[in-house]
Specification:
Layout: H1 11-29, H2 33-57, H3 72-82, H4 90-106, H5 112-132, H6 144-150
Helix pairs in contact: 1-2, 2-3, 2-4, 2-5, 4-5
């Protein structure tokens, strides 16, 4: 009997799951500001890559030029205006992205409580989005011991 192989993941999707797993590793490892920073940076990056994957799958380019890709805001715009893909979690994801920007550009130190809020909202969005929009199960790509602790 022949077993069906899972579909190959695009480089975007593979990277999205890798940085998500690494972000969760930091989040679950300790509640130091260093681990909270990396958790937020990686989880936000994962969301951006997942949004770009949906854009790409629907036949839209993720490139603005030969070397630059669209931002998370560009992905939202294409998803909402061209694909009628409503992201009901967008207000919470915007807060996460703002926290990421504060870390990246203003040397912010997120608290464990703030990180917990962002990780909870992000994981629930990711789980829903990859199921509804990409036809995938998060449990197939992220270790169960991590998921059990955050879901």
């Amino acid at each position: 009997m022949e077993t069906k192989k899972p579909p190959k993941l695009s480089p975007l999707l593979r990277s999205a799951f890798e940085v998500l797993e690494h972000g969760l590793w930091h989040y679950l490892r300790s509640d130091t500001t260093t681990d909270m920073k990396f958790a937020i940076l990686h989880i936000d990056q994962s969301i951006e890559l997942l949004l770009k994957e949906k854009v790409r799958r629907e036949g839209y380019s993720i490139y603005k030029g030969p070397k630059e890709t669209i931002t998370i805001w560009g992905a939202y715009d294409i998803l909402e205006t061209k694909l009628c893909c409503k992201i009901k979690e967008k207000p919470d994801l915007e807060l996460l992205h703002e926290e990421r920007n504060n870390i990246q550009h203003k040397y912010s130190n997120p608290s464990a409580d703030d990180a917990a809020f962002h990780v909870d909202k992000a994981i629930h969005f990711i789980e829903r989005f990859i199921k509804d929009e990409l036809g995938l199960r998060l449990a197939d790509y992220i270790p169960s011991n991590q998921l059990e602790q955050v879901l």
